[in-house]
Amino acid sequence: MTLLFTNCTILPMTGEQTPDEFVGAVGVVDNRLALVSADPVRIEAFRRDYPDRQEIDAAGKLLMPGLINTHCHVAMTLQRGYADDIPLMSWLHDYIWPFEAKQTPDEIELGAELGIVEMLLGGTTLFVDMYWSEHRIAEAVRRLGIRAMLGACYLDGNWDTFQDDLNRLMAISSECSRIRPVVAPHAPYSCAPETLQRGKELARNLGLLYTIHIAETQDEVKQIQERYGTTPTRHLDALGVLDDRTIGAHCVHVTDEDIRILKERGVAVAHNPQSNMKISSGVAPIARMRREGVLCTIATDGTCSNNDLDMWDEMRSATFLQKVSTMDPVVLPAYEILKMATVDAARAVGMAGELGVIREGALADFILIDLCKPHLMPVHNLVANLVYCANAADVDTVVVDGRIVVEERRVNGVDVAALCRRAQQAADRIVRRVAESK
Fold first, then answer.
1. Which CATH number fits domain 67-348: 3.30.9.30, 3.40.50.1110, 3.20.20.70, 3.20.20.140?
2. Is the distance from CB of 305 to CB of 275 less than 8 angstroms?
3. Banded pLDDT at 266 (limits 50, 70, 90)
């Protein structure tokens, strides 16, 4: 497919410094950015070279990289609002895991479809997931056109099920370049040392990312201290599972030594500010970690601990939370937050230069924001407006892998009203099964 977006404001997000936006055109050939320019001569040359292109006049819109959500549980949309205002461990043991035990694979795929549509409408073009039956989530990913790193999750006792899920994921990913499998042990308190190491060895042998919850709550820190006499981060480091192919979700309760380890091992931190606030997990010291050189990114977590998949809201919460917790208004300025959700996130998933930027040769994953909104006017600083004012409903168009998947806020091939009805019916069925089992 060949696309040409003209007359748009372009935010390149190079990552090195605050970018200067400019008005120009972006051309896509197959799944790559073939033109990023304000030069009328080059734009006309692209038109001549590709006479069968689809050309879109994007006047009044901003073209920027798609957002990358580095930690979520996308199929948990069916649990949105099911168990609110409950401490984490009770939330997991008394509500979430019993609910999950009554889900069918079809319902997991349906929940994933609902979550993917929500993310696409909000401008997320890639997400890193952690859940069960990820091969079924992969089917929703393949069908809807988003890009995903799908983490087959395991706890102690379900290794065989996990390995079957991972093998199926590997087969699907060989047929769809937008899907990459990930090895995803749940947490250091729910996985024995030998299974954590076994998963990491598998990830290294297959060249896969490894993602795990780390130091999310004080209760987790207490459990690891009682069992192993150390912190969750140092425990994982002693097992040899931390490296630059690891994404650690949360990292709320970390010591100075933990931060040093995360930096030296090259671990990427997926920061989930709204989930951490809602469950009262605490405030991750993101500003301090970034000062120390830790790669930090933005994520939503699941929809029953957030309760949405809106990365714009997450970015705003992340910067405000760091400002108020440090009592420093200059901490995490707007451009740094936007980098965390684009450029830095691409580094975290091993796709630096390919994603998170608008530059010729990069993969064509980008979004168009409708700037003609009262809450986005006037524009004194475009990046500040994006981080402090924009929301998911401002996303007009989404392109993933060179293909338009959202156009004028319509997800291609999806009847959203019918999807919502099916999701409600499925959630009601699962709740009935849970009640009948008690």
1. 3.20.20.140
2. yes
3. very high
